[in-house]
Amino acid sequence: xxxxxxxxxxxxxxxxxxxxxxxxxxxxxxxxxxxxxxxxxxxxxxxxxxxxxxxxxxxxxxxxxxxxxxxxxxxxxxxxxxxxxxxxxxxxxxxxxxxxxxxxxxxxxxxxxxxxxxxxxxxxxxxxxxxxxxxxxxxxxxxxxxxxxxxxxxxxxxxxxxxxxxxxxxxxxxxxxxxxxxxxxxxxxxxxxxxxxxxxxxxxxxxxxxxxxxxxxxxxxxxxxxxxxxxxxxxxxxxxxxxxxxxxxxxxxxxxxxxxxxxxxxxxxxxxxxxxxxxxxxxxxxxxxxxxxxxxxxxxxxxxxxxxxxxxxxxxxxxxxxxxxxxxxxxxxxxxxxxxxxxxxxxxxxxxxxxxxxxxxxxxxxxxxxxxxxxxxxxxxxxxxxxxxxxxxxxxxxxxxxxxxxxxxxxxxxxxxxxxxxxxxxxxxxxxxxxxxxxxxxxxxxxxxxxxxxxxxxxxxxxxxxxxxxxxxxxxxxxxxxxxxxxxxxxxxxxxxxxxxxxxxxxxxxxxxxxxxxxxxxxxxxxxxxxxxxxxxxxxxxxxxxxxxxxxxxxxxxxxxxxxxxxxxxxxxxxxxxxxxxxxxxxxxxxxxxxxxxxxxxxxxxxxxxxxxxxxxxxxxxxxxxxxxxxxxxxxxxxxxxxxxxxxxxxxxxxxxxxxxxxxxxxxxxxxxxxxxxxxxxxxxxxxxxxxxxxxxxxxxxxxxxxxxxxxxxxxx
Length: 717
Fold this sequence. Notes:
signal, alpha+beta, Glycosyl_hydrolase_97, GH97_C, hydrolase activity, seven-stranded parallel sheet, ten-stranded antiparallel sheet
């Protein structure tokens, strides 16, 4: 229980109103207050007059100079004078507001509304004669704030030891969280009270290809719920992470408080700053309904508009891939049986083939044929290039060259064959974490793509980052991702990154970075498994800042189909797999299963063929994190709607109200639902399909099986 002494309460009240600035949201429901208490900056947040965030400290700790030594993260008392978290006086304040509508290049809606009131407070630290600006933007759905560092005599270059932005909640809310890690977000979500996080933490993770855990800390976006008669949903995240490390949240479980923890490099430094500069925005989205949190676009609004002069090449893409058969172990990325290869030296044509290489001419043509017959636009091929024999686990810098195909992959012939069928091949650039090597080869790799008509690339960062000592979310690597995005834009190429940092709304600024993985995706169903509630939590966490390449569409969920006795399975019904195409926003949209599995269920596969990948409108019909999500979306440039509903491990009834449709119009609805006997364990492929004429007055009840769902295609008659 949170402890507040009477003395402390009275002392805090003495400071209320002294050096305090107040800011209200455009609709007046939110109020943010900023104040200095004995030179220390604090803020709080109220919603409808009720405290959502109690007085919470702001500030940063700095190293004394830019000559960082190993283990220098250990602070000494004499270092305190270098910090930017105390001794301030307010010297200026500016106010602003904006109400604009902007159009994302790709998005869940045609128009995003960016409406906020702003307060920028300039603080001067008298002892050092340094000034910083704390900027707040208050929207109708929550608060964003950041630090700004003007160029000045005594603050030109500095190194961040830690950012100490706090978010102090008054109550012990329910939380949906994953463990904090400098290198991965690929963990199962936990559902506990804030106070229970430390007790669960040690049991909340499994091994990963690259891992640096932060004890008793969690990752953002973090979803919270105040339960009771008047529930309140809170989402804590960040926006516009540029030239700065990604952050995590240290947990003070007793006081229901979170504090920013930045990703470090091997020296313990968190950020190398040259003024003028700004930090990412810390975001707090608040709403009385879970659906309103999912619908928020505040994180995107806190990013800058793109400076790209041409975005015409950035388009939604539906694709298939030579991928799942390698994930489940049926095929391999590597071509040969060798265990040690040297690029530019090894003659791969003289190596012994392993007989399981999936990216071969014959198999790829089979995928091309099926994708073309069913109206897909792209085909991803992994394992096409030399180097996979010893690609992982050796901290090998020169691991791929991104231009040399294996002997059984005829890149010219396959591209011509694909183009003759209306298919564009999608490039795969796995870096094995060697970001330095990728930057050296990026121009040649993208030139090869241009030569053969590849329009998009899936990048990968499996393993520890090179330069050694950096992490997937440290400042250097964050900057690497954007260097690659900018380089790809020079060649008119779209990026789909895997094992990268999670998006924080930057698709507004870098729209060619159209999707990312950065969470525990479908491949984990073939590894450690995903819980049935996993897909009902992701829209409230990972998806808040941008699209995810989740790779759904698995129809053959039991892996003993391939390997008798294998106990692995995808914890979902087939109908739920269809629904994911609507509940999850994916402008780069994959049908991930093998063609032979789709051929057995072409009636259900029709939904994947029909569903859109980009949207003019989105309506969250019903949602509760960890339980269920029901979403309706209107396809870009059409009058067609699609609806998807999913549930967790519990059976669930839900009635769709079609009042979002145009009044006075008739529509033909094609309905894909769990069959009467469907069950994700015992009968996952049991489904029912039927058509029905509906109007805006129609209602249809669905009975979702355990880890089941439903999907609807709606076309105006």
